[in-house]
Each structure stands twice: as C-alpha cells, then as structure tokens.
Design a protein that fits this description.
This protein has 338 residues and is an alpha/beta fold. 41% of the residues lie in helices and 14% in strands.
Length: 338
C-alpha cells in the first residue's frame, strides 16, 4: 500500500502539488498490533498533526485508533479492512473503499445456491472479522433456505487443520465458506483436498494475493474467492495511467505491484481530487463534502468504480467471483449479485 501511495504522492508534488500545496505522506509501521497502532496514531495526530489518516491497516487496529482520529476532527479514509463497521453506522469522517466482508459472504452463498447447493458450512477466525462473516453467513443461509451443517472458529495462531478438515468432510457440507487470512486459507484448503473433499471452497478479499493462488505447488487449483477489488495482468492493461504506474512500480521495487499497491495509489488519487475540489478553504468538512460530490471514480486498473454521497460512505458497489486456474486468480463472474 505504502509504495503505491508514495508513487502517487511524488507524482502530484512533482506536478506542483494541489492548489499550490504539497502533500506530505507520513508512514508509521504498527506491525499489525493494536497497542502500536494507538501509539502511532497518537504520534501522527499530535506530533505530525496530519490532516487525514489514509489506509489504516486492520479492523481492530482501526477501531482502536478511530476515537482519537475523530476527536481531533480528522478524516479516516479507506482503511485496509472490509469490515462493515468502517462505514456502518454512518459517520461523516469515515470513508471505506470496500464492500464489506458480510456482503462478500452473502455474494458467495447466493452464487452457490443458484448452482443447486443446499447444504453449506463455515470455518472462520474467532475474531470480530470472523463474527461479522458468521452473522452474514447465518442470515443469508436462512434467507435462501440453505441448511447449515457446521460452523467452526479457529484462533489466528492455529496452523494445523486436520481435525477441522475431517469434521467438515464428515458434515455433509456441499460448499465451504472461509473467513480466513493467508496461511490458514492455504493450509485449510490443501488439507481438505488431501482428504479427498472436492466440494466448492470460497474465501474472501483477505486471501486475494498472488502468493495464495500460487501456493503449495499448484494445490490451490479450483479455489473460489469473492472480492470487491481487481489486480490486472500487466498484459491486459490498456489505460496509460495504469501502465505508467505499473512500470514505475516495477522499476522502483523490482517486482510487480500487488493489489494493495493499487489500492494505495487509488486512495491517494481520490483524496487528492477531493482536496483539489475543496479549493483554498481546506477543512475536514469541505473535504467530506468534496468526497461526497466527487462523482464516479473509475479505477484506471480495471477494478470496480467507486462513488460516495452524503448518505453513502463506502465506495465500491461491485463484487467479483474468482477461481484459481493455473495458479492465478481468474475472474469467472463480474458483477456478482449480493
């Protein structure tokens, strides 16, 4: 995220800034820990006196830092989490990039129900993230008349899933929804396949990383994933802005940009457009109004367009269903209903 954001900040400043002002990007590494996030937020707000926080990482981390941010009257923009609490309940200073984990789980269940699946199960983390997915899973299953054959929770530190996989296999489940991250996605999926369980398995945006699709020497083939984001193949990119960014990223970092870098670029671009629209009188209120009236932001990388309004502070309104093919996430349904 940071590398992508920094490229856009440098481009804006090289072009003269926004209405004559340069952007300063301050980055604190909180190591995905709540106490360090609180300390970092305190430093950014009180020492650096930042105008806005953009791209806070993690649900619990954002929840912890948000009271300080809002008390200071600052903006909390586009945190890297799909939690519905990033935009529900509505709050003027909060803007989310993504459709929620709950909507992603709902989209997955609706898709598989249309394929004739009647019995479903869930394995998710024993965290706020997992609870949100469980709530949406249970509600949607009931709405669609699906039978829930099992719901399991595991800790973030768990690395062995033989017992869990055996329980899923023996539960008469016809499709598994996973509320997992990276390592547990890989281990649970490959363990189930080793046991001979060949039913559909679907993850969410947290696992949308090339390393997941390419893990385990091809053993992730066939896994589904629902996400409101898109990482293009370089050969498919036609937009000149996107091509320039991707080439610059690879030149600077020696590797292709991940989807998080693209989100970082887009987040800074949307913020910059709002600040420019706000004019010389840049306040939290004026930038909020500018974001709400910015119109449609068309992702130059081919992802879903983002729009905000005075009543709607989450940008994306579209989901994609992916499947791992040849160790890559390949879109199989665009505009997945939810």
């Amino acid at each position: 995220w940071t590398n992508g954001a920094r490229i856009r900040v440098d481009e804006i400043n090289a072009a003269g800034g926004i209405n004559g002002r340069k952007l300063n990007l301050f980055v604190e590494d909180a190591k995905y820990q709540v106490p360090l996030t609180i300390r970092s937020a305190n430093s950014l707000l009180n020492k650096e006196k930042v105008f806005a926080t953009v791209g806070l990482v993690g649900t619990a981390q954002t929840h912890a830092a948000r009271p300080m941010i809002e008390k200071k009257g600052r903006l909390n923009l586009f945190p890297l989490t799909g939690a519905a609490t990033m935009y529900e309940p509505f709050h003027a200073q909060r803007f989310s990039y993504f459709l929620s984990y709950a909507k992603q789980a709902r989209g997955a269940l609706m898709h598989f129900a249309k394929q004739g699946i009647k019995k479903v199960c869930l394995q998710t983390l024993a965290t706020d993230y997992g609870q949100e997915i469980d709530g949406a899973f249970q509600e949607t299953a009931k709405e669609l008349g699906l039978t829930v054959t099992g719901v399991g929770f595991h800790k973030t530190t768990e690395t062995e899933f033989s017992g869990t996989a055996t329980k899923i296999k023996n539960s008469d489940c016809e499709a598994l929804v996973m509320g997992t991250t990276v390592k547990d996605t890989i281990v649970l999926y490959t363990t189930l396949r080793k046991l001979g369980w060949d039913k559909p398995i679907v993850a969410n945006m947290v696992a949308y990383m090339p390393l997941v699709a390419a893990a385990a020497g091809g053993a992730m083939e066939g896994m589904y994933l629902v996400a409101p984001i898109y990482l293009p193949e370089l050969s498919d990119v036609t937009n000149e802005t996107a091509k320039t960014f991707l080439a610059k990223y690879k030149e600077q970092h020696g590797k292709d940009a991940a989807v998080q870098a693209i989100i970082g670029y887009n987040s800074i671009e949307m913020f910059a457009r709002a600040v420019e629209k706000a004019g010389d009188d840049i306040t939290t209120d004026s930038v909020v109004k500018a974001l709400e009236t910015l119109g449609t932001y068309k992702d130059p990388f081919g992802g879903a367009s983002l729009t905000f309004s005075a009543e709607k502070h989450h940008g994306s309104d579209s989901l994609l269903l992916y499947q791992v093919k040849d160790s890559k996430f390949v879109p199989v349904v665009k505009g997945l209903p939810y």
